[in-house]
TrEMBL record:
Protein name per Swiss-Prot or TrEMBL: Sugar ABC transporter permease protein
Lineage: Bacteria, Bacillati, Bacillota, Clostridia, Lachnospirales
InterPro entries: ABC_transporter_permease, MetI-like, MetI-like_sf
UniProt keyword annotation of Transport present: yes
A GO cellular-component term linked to this record: plasma membrane
A Pfam entry, by short name: BPD_transp_1
Annotated TM spans: 49-70, 82-102, 140-160, 180-205, 244-267
Organism, scientific name: Butyrivibrio hungatei
Family per similarity comment: Belongs to the binding-protein-dependent transport system permease family.
Signal peptide segment: none
Membrane topology summary: Multi-pass membrane protein
GO biological process, one term: transmembrane transport
Length: 275
C-alpha cells in the first residue's frame, strides 16, 4: 500500500509524463495548476462537496432516528433489522438501475416519481436527463439509501450496549425523554456516531460507482462527475491517459479528506464521550 502512494506522489510532479515511453519533459507544479483550472475538475469538486454536505448529516441523522425506533420495538426487531439491512448487501448497480427506472423520463412514460408529482399538481420532471438540481436530488437520495443500512446496523448495536441502569436512574427522577436522549443516549453512543461521520465523509468524497449506476459512464456529459470519476477519466482517457493529471487530482482529494478528517478529530476531543 505504501509504494503506490509514493508512486502517485512522484507522478504528480512529472510534467508531460508519457505512459508508453515512461518519460517526461520536466518536474514542477504544472499538473496541479492544470487540474485546478480544469472546468471538469471544478464541476467534479462542486458535485462531490454537495454530495458530502447533504448526504453525510442526513443519512446519519435518519439512521439514528430509525435505530432509536428499532431499539424500542420488542417484537419482530430482528426482522425489521434484516429488512433495513437489505439495501446494503444488494448490488449497487442493480439498485441504481431501479432508481433510474423510477426517476427517468422516456418517450413512453414520465417515470413513476414524476407521475406521482403530477398527481399532486406538480410539473413533470426528468430527474436523470433533466435540470442539474433534479439530478443532484436523485444522486443524494440514492446515496442516502445506499449508506443508511450500514449506519443503522452500527447504531442499533451501539444503543444495545448502553447500560440500562442509566435509564432506570433517569426514570426514577422522572427525566423527560428528550433529556434522556441528549444527556445519556447520545453521549454513550457518541464514539459510534463519530465513527460513522468520519467514514461517511471519506466514503462520500470517494463516490463514483453510485453516479455511474444512475447516469452512465459519461459523467462529464451528464454534469454529475465526481473527483474520483475525474481521476478515472484522466487515468484511462485518450492516448493512454494522463497519469500525471490523475495523480495530481488524487493528491488534491487526499489533502481535502485529510484536512476534514483532522478537523473532525479535533472537534471529537471535546464532543465525544469515551468510557
Amino acid at each position: 500500500m505504501v509504494y503506490p502512494l509514493i508512486d502517485v506522489f512522484v507522478y504528480s510532479f512529472e510534467e508531460g509524463y508519457n505512459f508508453a515511453s515512461q518519460s517526461f519533459w520536466s518536474v514542477g507544479f504544472y499538473n496541479y495548476s492544470y487540474v485546478l483550472h480544469d472546468p471538469f475538475f471544478i464541476q467534479a469538486l462542486k458535485n462531490t462537496f454537495i454530495i458530502v454536505i447533504i448526504t453525510v448529516p442526513l443519512s446519519t441523522g435518519i439512521a439514528l432516528l430509525i435505530s432509536l425506533e428499532l431499539s424500542s420495538i420488542k417484537a419482530l426487531r430482528d426482522l425489521f433489522q434484516t429488512i433495513y439491512f437489505l439495501p446494503y448487501v444488494t448490488n449497487t448497480l442493480a439498485v441504481g438501475l431501479v432508481f433510474m427506472i423510477l426517476f427517468k423520463k422516456t418517450a413512453y412514460s414520465d417515470g413513476l416519481i414524476s407521475i406521482l408529482i403530477q398527481l399532486f399538481g406538480g410539473p413533470s420532471v426528468d430527474f436523470i436527463d433533466g435540470p442539474y438540481w433534479a439530478k443532484m436530488f436523485v444522486m443524494c437520495f440514492y446515496t442516502i439509501w445506499i449508506v443508511m443500512p450500514f449506519k443503522i446496523l452500527i447504531l442499533t448495536s451501539a444503543l444495545a450496549s448502553v447500560n440500562p441502569m442509566y435509564y432506570k436512574a433517569a426514570q426514577v427522577d422522572n427525566t423527560p425523554k428528550w433529556r434522556i436522549f441528549y444527556k445519556i443516549t447520545l453521549p454513550m453512543i457518541s464514539p459510534m456516531v463519530f465513527y460513522l461521520v468520519i467514514t461517511g465523509f471519506i466514503g462520500a468524497f470517494k463516490a463514483y460507482s453510485d453516479e455511474v449506476a444512475l447516469f452512465g459512464t459519461d459523467l462529464n456529459a451528464a454534469g454529475m462527475n465526481t473527483i474520483v470519476g475525474y481521476v478515472y477519466d484522466m487515468l484511462y482517457g485518450n492516448s493512454g491517459g494522463y497519469p500525471s493529471y490523475a495523480s495530481a487530482a488524487a493528491l488534491i482529494l487526499f489533502a481535502i479528506v485529510f484536512t476534514i478528517t483532522t478537523i473532525n478529530l479535533m472537534v471529537s476531543r471535546k464532543t465525544v464521550y469515551y468510557q
